C-alpha cells in the first residue's frame, strides 16, 4: 500500500511535468530540443542543490548552508581554472569535490559534537561559507575550462531519442554513481533509519553520529557538483549565493521527501526541480515581467512548504 | 566447569535523570541456562536497568561484569557483540523501512530470522512489508525473532508479552524455555505471575531503584514477591475507612460515556460528582493516559461523550476544557512547566493564556494571588527564579498550584506523586481532600495502590481500555486492586 | 566556577557590558583620541536601527523562531515611503508604508502558527516574495522620484545638544519592549511558548494567536526601523537595510537571547547592537575584508549557541 502511494506521488509528479511540457509546446510551438537543452542546463545547479538537501532531509536534518557551499565551490573552481584550462582542470574538479564533501562533513561534525540543532549550526555555517567564498573571490570572475564547459552544454545525439541534453546526462550519471551504491549499502539504510527514528536506529546498533556526518558530507559533495555546474554554465565564479536554499527545500518537499526525515527518495525531488524550472520558463515565454515571475515562483515555493508543513503535522498525530 | 563465572553480573548500578533518582543500587546475577524474572512495581526502575545493561543508557555508577570481566557497555551494538540482546518495551524497529531492511540494519541473518518467526507461529511473514503498517503484536514478535536470530547468550525481555494475545504468549514462553534448554539465559520482565511461575527459576525484586531481594520460584513465592515489591507500607494520614464518605448526591459534574481513542482506550464510562475524589487504577498502558488527555482537551476522542454539568462538550483544545472547568495536571512535570521561567510566571501562566489578558499585568493583584498559592502549598521559594531548579516535589506543587490560583471545578491529577519525596506526598493527600471538601471534583490516577485509600472516595479500575471494576475506596485494599488491575475480576473474567 | 556560571546565566548583561568596555578601550588604544562625544553620538546613531531590527529577532527568538524577512521588510517600508511622499505627503506616506510591513508579518504568522512551517523557512520565503514585489513596484514608480521627509532626516541624523535625535524614538520604544516582555501577558506567553510550547498549550494558550500577533508585530517594528534607517542614510534603495540582516541576528544572539527560545531579553540585545557597531568600526580600522566579517558573524552565532547549550544543560 505504502509503496503504491510512494510511486503514486512520483507518477503524479511525472504527469504534471508532462502536462507542463505540453503547455510549453502550446505557448511556443517552436519549443523543441534546444528548448529542452536550455531547460536542463538552467536546472542543473538547482537539481544538485535539491539532491544535496534531499539527502540531509532524509537523514532527519536540514542544511541551510547549501547555497553558500555551492558559492565556495564555484569560486574555487573558477579561480583555479583561470589559466589552467587543460588536463589540470580535471584535478581541480576532484579537488573541489573533495572540498565540498569536507565542508559538508564539517557541518555534520559540528552538529554532532556541539549538539546544537541542525538549523542553528547550518545557519551559522551559511554565514561562514559565504565569508569564505568572498575571501576567495570578492567579485564575480575567474574562468572555466572550455572543454569542460562543453560537457554540460549542448545535446548528445542518441539514436532514437534525438539530442539528449548533456546537462541531463551528467546529472543522471553523477546522481546514479554517488547515490545508488550508497542507497544499496548499509550506510544508506542507516541514513533512512536515523531520519525515521533516531532512537530506534541507535537501539538497532546504528552509529547515529557517524551517519549524520556522512549525510552532511554527501550533501556537501552534491553542493560541490552544483557549484561546479554553476561555474561551467556561466564561465565565471559567483561569490554571492544564488536562490538555491529555498528552491531546494521547496523541490524536496514537492518531491515527496517529508521534512522530518526517513521518507522519500531522490527521483521525486529531481522531477520537482524540473517542474519548478519549467514553470519559470513558461512564465518567461508568456513574457511575464521577470520580477513578477520571481514573485509567482516564490509564492509557489512558500505554498508548497506550507502544504509540506501541514502534511508533516498530520503525520505526527 | 563448576566455578564458571556468571554470564552477567551487575551491582550497585545507579542512574539519575536530573533530580529524579531512577536507580540507586540495582543488582542482578545470571548464570548459563537460567531464566530470571526481574520484578518491581511501576517506576521501580526495571526498564532503566535493562537499558543500562544493554548500552542504551549510561549508568552514573556501579559495576557490570560480563563473564567475569568488568565492562562498560557503551552502545546497543557493543552489547550485542558481548552476547547481550534486549527486546525493549517500545519496538526498536524503523517505521519507514520494510522488514528486510530492518534486518539488514542490525546485521541479522534473514534465514535464521524467518526460522524463528515460524517457530513463533508466523509461518508466512512478508519481509517486504513496511514496519509502520504492521500491528503492534507483530512488531513485538519481529523484535523478538530478530533478537533470537543473533543467538544471544543473555536475552533480555522487557514486558514482552504485555501487548500479545494468549496464543502468542504461549509461543513466547515456549521459545524462552528452549533458550534455557540450549544453555542460554533469559532475563524476563513481566507483571504476570502466571508466566513467571511457568518459566522462571527465581525472581529479582526491585523497589524504588534498588534490588531488595531474590526469591526462588516455588509455592507461595507470589506473596513474598508482592510483599517485597510494595515494601513496608507506611500508612500515613487518614484512610478512606476512617473517613466519613458521604454518598455522592445530585447530578454528576462530569459524566463520561463510552469514551474511546486510538485503540488503547476502548470504552470507558463513569460519573464524577462535586466534592468527590475518584481514583483511577490501572497498570501501565491500559488507556489511562489517553483518558486523561481526552478529558483535558489535548487529544481528540474517536467516540463517546463527555458531559459537563449535563451538557455534552467537545474539546478541540485544552483551552476549551479549561473554560469548561477541567484542568489537567500531567504525569510528567516536564510537560506542564516552562522550566526556565520563574515560579511566578508558571503559576500565573493560565491567567495570561487568553488573548484578552495579553495587556499589562496587574502586578499587585497577581502578586497577591501568587503569594497566597505559594503559602497555601508551602512551595519552597529559595530557587523561585527558575522552576527547573526546584525539587520534584516543589515542581509538582507549582503544577497543581497553578490551577488553585486560577480556579477550576474539576482537577485531573495524573499520578501526582510520581517520583516525589514522602514529605510532599503527605502534603498532597490532605490538599486533594481539602479541594474536594471545598466542592471541587478530582479525578486521581495513581500508580501507587495505597494512595487510593489515602486520597479517594471511590475508584474505578481500567484494564485493556475498559472499566473492569469500581468500588468505594474503603474496600479498595491492595490485593483486590491488584487482581482487578490484572484483569482477574469483574467483567473482564 | 559554578557560582560564576550561575552569575553569567542569571545576568548575561554583565559580561556583555564588560566586553563593550573592553572593545571601546581597545579602540582608544588603537587610535588614541577617537573616543569622544562625537564618536559616541555617531555609534549610538548607527546602533539604533540595528537594535530595532534586532528587536524583531529577539521577540521571535524568545518563542524559538526567527524573522529573516525583517531587513527586507525594513527596506520595503523605506522605499515605499520615499516614493509615496510626493503624492500623500510625509505623514500619509509613513502610514501607508507600514501596511506592507504588517502584511508580510501576518503572512509569516500564518505560516508559522497555522501551517507549522519552521519560521526560518517561511520568513526566508516571504522575504524573497517581498524582494520580488519591491522590484516590480520600483519599475512602476521609476518616473515619480523619491524624497526622504525632513522629519525622518532630523530623527535619523540630527543631534540636539550633542545627543542624537533618534533617541526620541528609540528610548520610548526600548522602554515599551522592556516593559512588554516581563510585565504583559503577551510577553509572558512569548517566554512560555519558547520554553515549552506543549506546557503553554496545556495551560490553555492557543499558540497560533500568539504567533500571528508576534510576527505581525515584528513586521511593524521592522517597518519603523526601515523608516528610521532611511532617515539616517538619506538615499532610499532596493537593498537599503539588507546588510543589517546578519548583524540583527548576531546582536540578539550575542545579547544572550537563546535561539532555542525561552531565555534572554531586549536589554542584552541593545548592548549586543552596540558591541557589533563598535566591532564594525574596529574591523574597518583593521581593513578586515567583508568575507572575514561574515565568517566572524557565523562563528560568533555558533560559538554563543554552543556555550549557551553547555550553560543551560548543566544539571
Order of strands in the sheet with most strands of chain B: 6-7-8-3-9-10
- Major beta sheet, strand line-up of chain A: 1-2
What fraction strand of chain B?
A: 15-25%
Secondary structure tally, helices of chain A: 13
CATH topology of the largest domain in chain B: Rossmann fold
Going by CATH, the architecture of chain A would be Orthogonal Bundle
Secondary structure class of chain B reads alpha/beta
Termini separation of chain A: 20 Å
CATH top level of chain A is Mainly Alpha
List how many beta strands of chain A DSSP finds: 2
Mean pLDDT of chain B: 84
Instruction: State the helical fraction of chain B.
Output: 25-40%
User: How far apart, in Å, are the first and last alpha carbons of chain B?
Assistant: 48 Å
Count of spatially separate domains of chain A: 1
Low-confidence stretches of chain B at least 5 residues in length (pLDDT < 50)?
Answer: none
Uncertain regions spanning at least 5 consecutive residues of chain A? none
> Number of helical runs of chain B?
17
At CATH level 3, the topology of chain A is ABC transporter involved in vitamin B12 uptake, BtuC
Oligomer state equals heterotrimer
The major pleated sheet of chain B works out as:
6 strands, mixed
